[in-house]
C-alpha cells in the first residue's frame, strides 16, 4: 500500500513523540505506513501526493491568528509550507485530515475566519454531529454526541463558504468540517486520551492555555471526565483511502498519480 504522511509541528520531543504514537494507535497503521515529518525541524520541500494514500496534520502550539510580526521564522516557514501543500490538496480533493492546528490552517486557507472568539480550555467537551456529520463516511462513525478533548486559543468563528459543517460544541461553533469530498479538519483531538493530555499539559504548562498552578487539576478533571474512548474517526479516514485489499486496513482507494506540490 502507499503510506500515509503524518505532519507534526510540535517542537517539544515528548508531546511530539506521544502524538505520533497516538496517531499510529488510532489509525491502525505502523511507522512504515504512517510516515512522520516534523515540520518544525525541517522544510517540507517537494511532496508528490501520488506517492501517498493521504495526509494527516497534527496539532501544536502555533496559532494562525497570531500577529504576523509576532510569529517566529520557523512558524512562518511552517505556515508557508502548509499553504503550498493545501493548494495542491484542495485542488485535487486529495485525502487530508487536520486536527486542532489543522482546522485553523485549513480554515484560513479556504477563506474562513479564525480568531480568538471561541477558545476552549484544556479538557473535555461534548461534540455534536450535524446531519451532514452523521451521514459522513468519516465523522459518521462517531456517535451523534460524544466526548472529546480540546484545548485551543483560536477557532473558526466563520466557516469557509463552500465548506460542510460536520460537528459543533456548545463553546465552539465549528468542531469539524469538510471541503470537497475528501478534505477534513477537526477542532477536537481524535487521537487524544487522558494520558496524552497529561503529557501535553506538562509540556505546555507555561504557554497560556491554563493557570500553571492548576496543571494537576486540569489532568485530574480530564481523568474523571468520562472521556475514556476516542471516536474511531482516524481509523475510518484511513480505511476509506487505503487501497482495496491492502493491510492493515481495508477500504476504497482514492489515490492520485503525478500530483506534486511545488517548492516555494
Which features would summarize this protein structure in a list?
single chain; 264 residues; alpha/beta; Rossmann fold; two-stranded antiparallel ribbon; globular; GATASE; Class_I_gatase-like; glutamine amidotransferase; ChyE-like
Detailed description of the structure:
The chain is an alpha/beta fold and 264 residues long. It has one domain (4-261): Rossmann fold (3-Layer(aba) Sandwich). Helices cover 29% and strands 23% of the residues. The chain has helices spanning 13-27, 73-92, 101-109, 131-135, 194-203, 215-223, 233-241; strands spanning 4-8, 34-38, 47-48, 54-57, 96-99, 113-115, 120-129, 145-152, 155-158, 164-169, 176-179, 183-186, 260-261. A nine-stranded mixed sheet has the order 2-1-4-5-12-11-10-7-8, sandwiched between helices. A two-stranded antiparallel ribbon has the order 3-13. Strands 6-9 form a two-stranded antiparallel sheet. The radius of gyration is 17 Å and the shape is globular.
Topology, pairings included?
Blueprint: E1 4-8, H1 13-27, E2 34-38, E3 47-48, E4 54-57, H2 73-92, E5 96-99, H3 101-109, E6 113-115, E7 120-129, H4 131-135, E8 145-152, E9 155-158, E10 164-169, E11 176-179, E12 183-186, H5 194-203, H6 215-223, H7 233-241, E13 260-261
Amino acid at each position: 500500500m502507499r503510506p500515509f504522511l503524518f505532519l507534526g509541528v510540535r517542537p517539544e520531543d515528548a508531546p511530539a513523540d506521544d502524538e505520533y504514537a497516538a496517531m499510529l494507535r488510532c489509525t491502525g497503521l505502523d511507522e512504515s505506513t504512517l510516515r512522520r515529518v516534523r515540520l518544525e525541524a525541517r522544510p517540507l520541500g517537494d511532496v508528490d501526493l501520488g506517492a501517498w494514500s493521504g495526509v494527516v496534520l497534527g496539532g501544536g502550539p502555533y496559532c494562525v491568528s497570531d500577529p504576523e510580526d509576532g510569529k517566529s521564522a520557523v512558524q512562518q516557514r511552517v505556515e508557508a509550507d502548509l499553504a503550498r501543500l493545501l493548494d495542491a490538496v484542495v485542488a485535487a480533493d486529495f485525502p487530508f485530515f487536520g486536527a486542532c492546528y489543522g482546522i485553523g490552517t485549513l480554515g484560513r486557507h479556504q477563506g474562513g475566519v479564525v480568531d480568538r472568539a471561541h477558545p476552549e480550555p484544556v479538557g473535555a467537551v461534548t461534540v455534536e454531529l450535524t446531519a451532514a456529520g452523521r451521514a459522513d463516511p468519516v465523522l459518521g462513525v462517531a456517535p451523534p454526541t460524544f466526548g472529546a478533548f480540546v484545548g485551543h486559543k483560536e477557532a473558526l468563528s466563520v466557516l469557509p463558504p463552500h465548506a460542510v459543517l460536520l460537528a459543533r460544541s456548545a463553546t465552539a461553533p465549528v468542531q469539524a468540517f469538510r471541503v470537497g469530498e475528501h478534505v477534513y479538519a477537526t477542532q477536537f483531538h481524535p487521537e487524544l486520551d487522558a494520558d496524552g493530555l497529561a503529557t501535553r499539559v506538562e509540556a505546555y504548562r507555561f504557554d497560556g492555555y491554563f493557570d500553571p498552578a492548576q496543571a494537576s487539576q486540569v489532568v485530574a478533571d480530564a481523568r474523571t471526565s468520562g472521556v475514556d474512548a476516542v471516536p474511531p474517526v482516524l481509523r475510518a479516514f484511513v480505511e476509506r483511502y487505503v487501497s482495496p485489499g491492502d493491510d492493515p486496513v481495508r477500504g476504497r482507494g482514492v489515490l492520485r498519480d503525478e500530483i506534486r506540490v511545488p517548492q516555494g
